[in-house]
Amino acid sequence: MIVADRGFYFHSNEDANSVLKGFTIMNGYGGNFGGGIYCRDSSPMVTDCVLISNSAGHGGGMMNWNSSPTLSRCTFQQNSSRDMGGAIENHYHSNAKILLCAFNQNSAGQDGGAIYDYHSDPTFERCIFSENYAS
Questions:
Q1: How many CA atoms, within 13 angstroms, populate the side-chain half-sphere of residue 32?
Q2: pLDDT tens across 55-82, in order?
Q3: How far is residue 52 CA from its own chain's centroid?
Q4: DSSP symbol at 16
Q5: Which of 20, 37, 61, 109 lies at a C-alpha separation of 20 to 30 Å from 117?
Q6: What are the strands of the beta sheet with 70-72, ordered from one edge?
Q7: Which residues, in sequence order, are bridge partners of residue 25?
């Protein structure tokens, strides 16, 4: 059994009226999905947050499953995944809007040191990527 101890879990069709603002989410463990934040069938607004040193099998910092959150002015640093998406994994129709975010020193055991997309089409605007790594 894998026990998850993540920062936030959105799973009840939350929309942009659900706002997560100004938090530092650190050392979260998501088991298989989303160490810092896990969005399933939800699309909240996440702004001015720092996700640091979170881990999971998929989406070390954040996992989006059939979810399209808006991320604004967030920093993803030193998050890791065993498999895909060191900082973020967008899975199954997760069309996140990612604006003015920074991705630094995130890592993945397989693909997508910073971002991994599977059947998803996220948009990025004015983001910074540095020193991310995938095996």
A1: 3
A2: 999 999 999 999 999 999 999 999 999 9
A3: 11
A4: T
A5: 20
A6: 19-21, 45-47, 70-72, 97-99, 123-125
A7: 51
